[in-house]
Amino acid sequence: MKKRILTVSAMIMLAGCGDFEWFPEEKPATTITASTPTADSSTFTNQCGVQTSTQITSNAVTVSGITGPTSISVSNNNDSQYSINDGPFTSSAGNVSSGQSVRVRHISAADTGTENSIVTTTLTIGGGNSTFKTDTNPCP
Fold first, then answer.
1. What is the DSSP code (8-state) at residue 116?
2. How many domains is the chain built from?
3. What is the spatial distance between Cα 64 and Cα 75, in angstroms, rounded to a whole number?
4. What one-character DSSP code corresponds to residue 3?
5. Residue 22 lies in a domain
6. pLDDT reported for residue 124
7. pTM of the predicted model, to two decimals?
8. Domain membership flag for residue 2
9. Domain that holds residue 125
10. pLDDT class for 8, splitting at 50, 70, 90?
11. Most confident of 37-41, 65-69, 96-100, 114-118
12. Do the domain assignments include residue 11?
């Protein structure tokens, strides 16, 4: 009887902790659709609480919505680079095709606790943009 009460009490306490999910949903693979000429800020997973002055690599995303090779480029802030299908990283413009995966990386900010703690890399495929941000401040 005491074990049941303890178990129920623990479950109630955990449920009150905020971001606790009883049955978390599995998230589908992320896709970049390059035919939309607007930024899709949800494509790359932004990261917070990263170390200062450190190379940070994004999650991989899959390109879709294009036919044939399409131009790809990356903003050149804080050594921003991209990689196609786990190939070498580059900051030079190139071409990407539907179905290929892309990652970006950059050097995180040298500061914490200031407005300069966020670094943003913008990846452009055709007319579409997607951003990857890192923040050296702790996650909220």
1. G
2. 1
3. 21
4. H
5. no
6. 95
7. 0.71
8. no
9. 28-135
10. very low
11. 96-100
12. no
